[in-house]
Amino acid sequence: MNAIADQSLVDSVFKHLQKNFVEGKEYAAAVIRDADGKEFKAMHMRHFANKICGELAALVVLLNSDEEIKEPLTSVAAMYVDGKPTIVSPCGRCRQVLGDHFPSINFLVNDKNVIKKVTLRETLPYLYLKDGEIA
Fold first, then answer.
1. Contact partners, residue 54, CB within 8 Å, separation at least 6
2. Which one from 23, 26, 39, 55 is the annotated catalytic residue?
3. Beta carbons of 16 and 54 less than 8 angstroms apart
4. What value does the CA radius of gyration of the chain take, rounded to a whole number of Å?
5. How many whole angstroms separate alpha carbon 21 and alpha carbon 12?
6. pTM assigned to the model
7. Quick check: 74 and 38 in contact, CB under 8 A?
8. 40 has which bridge partners?
9. Residues 34-47: pLDDT tens digits?
10. What range defines the domain where residue 107 resides?
11. Is 55 a catalytic residue?
12. Phi, psi of 47 (to 5 degrees)
C-alpha cells in the first residue's frame, strides 16, 4: 500500500463519514480517487424499495462529474463498527460494477484489521466480463 497517498484516502473517507453520517439512514461512506487525486464522494442510501451502496453512489457522482478521469482509480468505503470509523471491504456487487466500468480499479480492503490495497482481480479472481476478455 502506498502509505502516504492511501492514508490520505482513508482520512478522506473517515472525514466524509463523520460529516454525513445519519443514524439509521446513511451508514457507510465511500470515496473514489483517480490517479490525479480527484475525489468523488457519496454515502450509502437505504430505502424500503432498495439500497445503493456508497461505492456505487460515488461511481454515479464520478460518471456525472464532467471531469476527465485518469486511471487507475482507488475506491474505499468506511462505516462505524462499535462506534469507531472502520474501513470495510466492498461487496461483490460493487466490485463487479466498478470493475465493469474501470477494470484497472484498486480497492482498499480490510483484511483482519490490516488495510491493504488490492486489484480488482485480487478481489474477484473469476470476474465475469461480458466480452469474455480478462481484465
1. 28, 29, 30, 42, 43, 44, 77
2. 55
3. no
4. 14
5. 14
6. 0.88
7. no
8. 32
9. 999 999 999 988 76
10. 3-123
11. yes
12. -145, 155
Which of 29-33, 75-79, 124-128 comes out lowest in average pLDDT?
Answer: 124-128
Question: For the domain that residue 17 is a member of, what is the CATH number?
Answer: 3.40.140.10
Q: How does pLDDT run across 46-91, given as a tens digit for each residue?
A: 766 778 899 999 999 999 999 999 999 999 999 988 889 999 999 9
Does any domain span residue 31? yes
Lookup: cell for 108: 482498499
Average pLDDT, the chain: 88
Within-domain flag for 73? yes
Q: Of 57, 62, 55, whose CA–CA distance to 88 is shortest? A: 55
| CB hemisphere CA count around 68 (13 angstroms) | 2
Cα angle, residue 114 at apex, residues 110 and 116 outer, rounded to 5°: 65
Cell numbers placing 106: 484498486
Position 23, amino acid: E
